[in-house]
């Protein structure tokens, strides 16, 4: 049996929940498929306050924003949320398959919004499979969702926002953070987060990397060393840092398997942190009816993911004939919000990446016409 | 680097040495390496190793990351019990 759906949203994180709310607000019927037990995505573990403007819930903590979005989705009669539902395939004929509580479900959506987010990058160094080496996401889940103290003594790798924020939360949980190692010559995250860390006395070693991890049955320590301008290790600069946990916060990459399967045109864009689907101004991919919003189309922040979700939601519902004028108006407003969010210095990289995707999309259209 | 103790594919327990041996033997795409080693065929379906292998290929063959060919992505995106598919087939009959 194949189930017909108007708008299918794949992933119930910040982008997905906002996409669903936007499409439903215009009258479209939406099904959200969320692989976890609860929707909310990464918001459920984000105990820090958000930046941005009021429209993106600035000043609120991630968990509070998540709770509100989930509640809104549950109360909206036009939205159905299916949890423990992993979308496992998108086929050529448009059928989407879902693994849901030991069942295999087939869906035929009119529109699909892919909001699958991102996965963490891993690092190659000797000893990198020792117990005690975690991704920052796992540490944050243990600590903030499960309420488990994940370590006694942690060395963090990565001074981007995730590395800085998780280090601070570890300190709050009573864990000793022995330092933060960052390969780049400067701190990547916001200074406000870095300052908190420095005030707590945690050293941030920029221009350093993990040379190797050691330990008999589990992690006992890490050898770090300095890097030259070409990111090559400088011998003789080794430093032995004893710790029981090494936490990797070395960046995220878009989770795009479903986009590839669906046949979306893809490109590797460094500024967007990996392969991304080429999307137009409505965030529609090169496969008509399939949209991509949030981290899946380029690693940014939850605030922009939420606005992208809304934009795609309005565009998808409008294209189905639901209040096209209102849809257009709200889409424009969301686009303006995105430009505003990206107007600061941190938005420069994203804008450079988006320009590249736009150029590739334009070139593709040119090729199609010029035969 | 101590390549014997550096894991690139955690699911299939493949070291950097295993992958570099393949590359030195002439394998030049992620899909080829996957076929001979099973890299990327475990529970995480390549989410950990795919880009690490891409980086090794990029460095060895001096190809920019933009041009490294990605493997084919097929459903299901994560391993599921065979019985689930069998049940679905029995219940649903054919395609409809």
UniProtKB/TrEMBL annotation, chain B:
Domain of life: Bacteria
Single annotated GO MF: oxidoreductase activity
Every SoxA A3 domain range: 9-87
Signal peptide annotation: none
Keyword annotations of the record: Oxidoreductase
InterPro entries associated with the record: BFD-like_2Fe2S-bd_dom_sf, Metab_Enz_Cyan_OpOx_G3PDH, SoxA_A3
Pfam families: SO_alpha_A3
Full protein name: (2Fe-2S)-binding protein
Organism: Hominifimenecus microfluidus
């Amino acid at each position: 049996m194949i189930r017909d759906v108007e708008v299918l949203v794949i992933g119930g994180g910040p982008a997905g929940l906002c996409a669903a709310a936007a499409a439903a607000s215009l009258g479209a019927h939406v099904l959200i498929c969320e692989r976890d037990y609860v929707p909310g995505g990464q918001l459920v573990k984000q105990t820090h306050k958000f930046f941005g403007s009021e429209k993106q819930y600035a000043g609120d903590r991630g968990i509070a924003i998540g709770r509100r979005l989930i509640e809104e989705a549950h109360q909206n009669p036009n939205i159905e949320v299916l949890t423990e539902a992993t979308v496992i395939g998108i086929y050529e004929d448009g059928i989407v398959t879902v693994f849901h509580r030991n069942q295999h479900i087939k869906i035929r959506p009119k529109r699909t919004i892919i909001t699958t987010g991102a996965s963490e990058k891993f690092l190659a160094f000797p000893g990198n499979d020792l117990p005690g080496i975690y991704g920052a996401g796992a540490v944050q889940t243990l600590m903030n969702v499960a309420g488990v103290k994940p370590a006694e003594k942690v060395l963090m790798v990565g001074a981007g926002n995730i590395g800085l924020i998780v280090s601070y939360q570890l300190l709050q949980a009573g864990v000793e953070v022995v330092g933060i190692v960052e390969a780049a010559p400067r701190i990547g995250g916001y200074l406000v987060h870095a300052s908190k860390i420095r005030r707590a006395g945690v050293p941030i070693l920029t221009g350093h990397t993990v040379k190797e991890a050691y330990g008999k049955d589990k992690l006992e320590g890490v050898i770090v060393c300095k890097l030259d301008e070409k990111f090559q290790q400088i011998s003789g600069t080794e430093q032995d840092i004893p710790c029981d946990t090494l936490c990797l916060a070395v960046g995220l990459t878009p989770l795009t398997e479903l986009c590839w399967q669906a046949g979306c045109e893809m490109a590797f864009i460094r500024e967007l942190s990996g392969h991304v689907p080429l999307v137009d101004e409505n965030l529609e991919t090169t496969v008509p009816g399939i949209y991509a919003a949030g981290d899946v189309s380029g690693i940014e922040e939850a605030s922009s993911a939420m606005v992208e979700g809304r934009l795609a939601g309005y565009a998808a519902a409008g294209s189905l004939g639901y209040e096209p004028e209102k849809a257009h108006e709200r889409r424009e407003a969301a686009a303006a919000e995105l430009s505003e969010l990206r107007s600061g210095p941190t938005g420069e990289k994203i804008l450079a990446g988006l320009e590249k995707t736009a150029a590739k999309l334009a070139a593709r259209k040119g090729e199609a016409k010029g035969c | 680097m101590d390549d014997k103790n550096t894991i690139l594919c955690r699911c299939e327990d493949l070291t950097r040495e295993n992958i570099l041996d393949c590359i030195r033997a002439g394998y030049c795409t992620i899909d080829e390496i996957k076929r001979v080693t099973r890299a990327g065929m475990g529970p995480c379906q390549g989410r950990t190793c795919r880009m690490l292998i891409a980086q090794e290929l990029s460095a060895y063959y001096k190809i920019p990351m933009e041009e490294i060919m990605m493997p084919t992505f097929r459903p299901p995106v994560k391993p599921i019990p065979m019985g689930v598919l069998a049940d679905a087939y029995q219940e649903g009959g054919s395609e409809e």
